[in-house]
Amino acid sequence: MTEVQRLGIVVVGASLAGLRGAEALRDRGYDGPLTLVGDEPHQPYDRPPLSKHVLAGELPPEATVLPQLSRLRARWRLGQPAVALNRERRVLHRADGATLPYAKLLITTGARARTWPGEGADLAGIFTIRTLEDARALWSALACRPNRVIIVGGGLIGCEAASCCRDLGLAVTLVDPNPTPLARLLGTTIGATLAERMRGAGVDFRPKTKVRAFSGEAGQVRRAHLAGGEVLETDLVIVALGATRDTGWLAAAGLAADAGGLTCDGACRAISIAGEPDPDIYAAGDVARWPNPLYGDRPMTVEHWGNAVDQARHAAANMLASASDQIPYRHLPSFWSSQFGLNIKLAGSTEGADALAVVQGTRASQRFLAVYGRAGRTVAALSFDQARWLPAYAEAVAAGASFPPILGATDQPRIEALEPGLPGPRRSPDRGAAALETAHA
Amino acid sequence: MRVVVDLNRCQGYAQCCYAAPDHFELRGHEILFYDPAPSEAKRSQIERAQQACPVRAIEIEPAGLAEGDEP
What we know:
The complex is a heterodimer of chains A (441) and B (71).
Chain A: H1 3-7, E1 9-12, H2 16-27, E2 34-38, E3 75-78, E4 82-86, E5 91-94, E6 99-101, E7 104-107, E8 111-113, E9 126-127, H3 132-143, E10 149-152, H4 156-167, E11 172-175, H5 183-200, E12 204-206, E13 211-217, E14 220-226, E15 231-233, E16 236-239, E17 243-245, E18 257-258, E19 261-263, E20 269-271, E21 277-283, E22 288-292, E23 298-300, H6 305-320, E24 334-339, E25 342-348, E26 355-362, E27 367-374, E28 377-384, H7 390-398
Parallel strand pairs in A: 1-2, 1-7, 2-3, 7-21, 9-16, 10-11, 10-16, 11-12, 19-22
Antiparallel strand pairs in A: 4-5, 5-6, 8-17, 13-14, 14-15, 18-19, 20-21, 22-23, 24-25, 25-28, 26-27, 27-28
Helix pairs in contact in A: 2-6
Chain B: E1 3-5, H1 15-19, E2 24-27, E3 31-34, H2 43-52, E4 58-60
Antiparallel strand pairs in B: 1-4, 2-3
């Protein structure tokens, strides 16, 4: 009996990536022991609806449990997070003190919502959106009809939450240090189009400022103090400041892990602090930072749904392959977001983009397809309600086409190169420089 | 039963909305809203929607999956 047949494969992290990875192991013929370890007590569920239809009250949180696409025959260890990894002894330590031996490990622990780091963090009425419990608690609080919701952070989650609050008829203020929403992700030129849409929907958007502190009465949040001295009354706050990768439990494992992710090689194998891949430990999804050949082997973490699925399946295939048959993971990042009646989709990475062009439709109509260029190559394609055009442009991005790609297409406007208006890299040290704006969509 | 749509793939052709109008609905130009936990009785309708999808974006849990899983 081989080591893998005896000790089996353990998947740490029982969300989308863990589930799809486990399924891929079975689909590819692995029939040994399979254990899924999860810190949340739930069966794997789908996170994107939590900041959309669940928040809007259209779906109960528990409806988001994910379909299991193949028979797993797995041991589920839910509600018991892994707290440490001992690679020499090949065991995983769980929070309840139990140890779990493994022959191979797939790490899919994902990320955690960044909580409010400033003054007032202990007040009631301050929420994040990441887990089923978050969504449940926030939904109940929204159902009590707060007078004014303040959202901190204009990334994908903040914008989606603002949209849901307006759908519920609630007054909402969105505070972001950048000039527009989604500035880090899409740049301020496209961001301005969204700002217009958002204000049209009744959101009080406060750009170029920060919340300095929250204060309250009787333990309940009542006021937000902005950097400029302004004080806003509020009774419900949503903190949408992105996420940190769940790597704390790997602190003593001797792996190259930090709050920006677990560093992997091209085949998704975890890299040790000595710089060598561990042949028995793989990672996938939000937590994995790997050199993406599509972007010149730049180390990337991609916190999006599509990557959780694709990378987990890829890592599973490599786990079952011999050392000489490890295939590098190439991935075109992509996400969708629905907000203010718009379907926003991106394929590619806007990081470092120096040019932007609208290639289908117009910004004025708020229905268009735009491409981002970097050093003369097309690096990303963005759709605002133009999803049917996206695959052709996504293909051009994947092929590394020159910028702009696809000239002379049907109904194409006159193409003019614009400044994308992407802010410089973040200064905060706990974020990998290559991290995309965080979101789980 | 459980359903999930890969909304990266979805291009808003709305064929699922014709095949299973109680479970899939298009909002605005192309936002798909769907019921991820329909009753088992609706399986044939949902499977029709899955077959009708031109970009194969709909994934459905096969019947009777939990067997063989240890708690």
